[in-house]
Amino acid sequence: MDYDIIIIGSGPGGYVAAIRASQLKMKVAVVERAELGGICLNWGCIPTKSLLKSAQVYDYLTHASEYGIKIEGDIKPDFNAIISRSRGVAEGMSKGIQFLFKKNNIVHIKGYGRLAGGNSVEVGDNEGNYKTYSAKSIIIATGARSKELPNLKQDGMKIIGYREAMTLEKQPESMVVVGSGAIGSEFANFYQSIGTEVTLVEFLPRIVPNEDEEVSKQLERSFKKIKMKVLTNSLVEYVDTSQERCMVTVKTPKGSEIIETDIVFSAVGVETNIEDIGLEKAGVKTEKGKVVVDDYYRTSVEGVFAIGDIVHGPALAHVASSEGIICVEKIADIEVEPLDYKNIPACTYTNPEIASCGLTETAAREAGFDIKVGKFPFTASGKASASGTKDGFVKLIFDANYGELLGAHMIGANVTEMIAEIVVARKLETTAHEIIKAVHPHPTMSEAIMEAAAAAYGEVIHL
Questions:
Q1: Which one of 108, 226, 247, 339 has the lowest number of neighbouring Cβ atoms within 10 Å?
Q2: pLDDT of 126 over the 90 cut
Q3: 332 class by beta-carbon count within 10 Å (0-12 exposed, 13-18 middle, 19+ buried)
């Protein structure tokens, strides 16, 4: 065998698995045709946060007078500089992965990899040359890409996906964003914040539909506060790109309307990269666009594993990384426990941010739990008032019988940093009483977690 493990794909699942395997004294190679770090580091998680940070700084400057700061002259976003900074941040992160590969003696095989049957991986380069490598174990971590709808075909110019949305040559005056999940909402927030007139279209009754209903309502209020147009229960039927601007026909509860816009950004989800990677040839079982795996990411073929967006579970970078570590440790015959998919944090980096974990209030009731719900608004938070970030709240859901923390739902400034407390608390099976009695620092946004727990049991102080 050439290697102990060959990993196809270098995203947050693939590169993390590779580093862990190297730590366990395995000989590792990673097949990647593009930049190391995959979509997340180069075209997803990291560069979008850079864009959103620029928008946040611009927002601070335009509201500087509210903080007692006087700024003379016009304040304008430099769109090209914002995009350039974002690409620079992504490039720096990718170089960081290159360093980690060298540090951990991981071989980068540049090219397009596919299963070749048995313990083999075939890699093709840009010149059409192919070479076959062998390994005791093969991990597929090929991720996902922007999903295309039949009536919303991306041309890369007028109808775009997330790649084009973060590399446009000039800032559009207007944009229609189709889909209000994390990707759609984040980009809608970014563009609206820097002056683009954004219309956000969502097919379902509320935006960020996977979040708690109260969180969705709060984000919609916050979006409308910055003059974003939000259309729910609405469907983009047709986009006419034959003219200089796009003519978007949207079916709404009030009837059809035509929106004239510069750009249509399709954010209707992602689809897995499982085509043409040799799954059929190798006999790897798939179902509904996903590779079928067990609790330790073993596929139907001995020695072949799969992790990340191409398997069951939420398509999140931190999930893929956790799966990669579990998978590699199982290969190394280390005793590991399966990933608890009921305790996965989800974050949306809009302004205000959203973070959640566990059951929503509706899901908890539907599951038959007798629940206690505690909610603490940031309008009652001293730190939020001092920071000028009073939009949002923390909402906690407990099992009334045992005090078990069933779910947490937050919207507000920095809540994506606060959700880790909830994940650890749930992992340790912490009860409401223990959260209430755990001393939280003052003044902080995180106090709202303690206060929300206290509110569920009638002990809240600051409401």
A1: 226
A2: no
A3: middle
pLDDT tens sequence across 35-58: 999 988 998 899 999 999 999 999
298 and 306 in contact (C-beta within 8 Å)? no
Between the alpha carbon of residue 192 and those of residues 52, 115, 224, 233, 426, the distances in Å are 11, 44, 10, 21, 36
- Answer for the pair 39, 183: CB distance below 8 angstroms, yes or no: no
- Which tokens in the block code for residue 463? 């409401």
Query: How far is the first Cα of the chain from the last one, in angstroms, to the nearest whole number?
Result: 65
398 vs 400: CA distance, rounded Å: 6
Q: What is the pLDDT of residues 162-216, one digit of tens each?
A: 999 999 999 999 999 999 999 999 999 999 999 999 999 999 999 999 999 999 9
**Range 268-271, long-range pairs (CB < 8 A, 24+ positions):** 268/147, 268/149, 268/152, 268/178, 268/179, 268/184, 269/147, 269/179, 269/181, 270/144, 270/145, 270/146, 270/147, 270/309, 270/315, 271/144, 271/145, 271/146, 271/147
User: Is 312 labeled as catalytic in the residue annotation?
Assistant: no
Give the C-alpha separation, 206 to 217, whole Å: 8
Q: Which helix (H) or strand (E) holds 29?
A: strand 28-32
Contacts of 146 (CB under 8 A, 6+ apart): 154, 161, 162, 163, 266, 267, 270, 271
Residue in 63, 312, 442, 462 annotated catalytic: 442
Hey, what are 201's tokens? 């279209």
Helix 447-456 / helix 415-427 crossing angle, nearest 10 deg = 60
Contact assessment for residue 190 and residue 55, using Cβ atoms and an 8 Å cutoff: yes
pTM of the model: 0.94
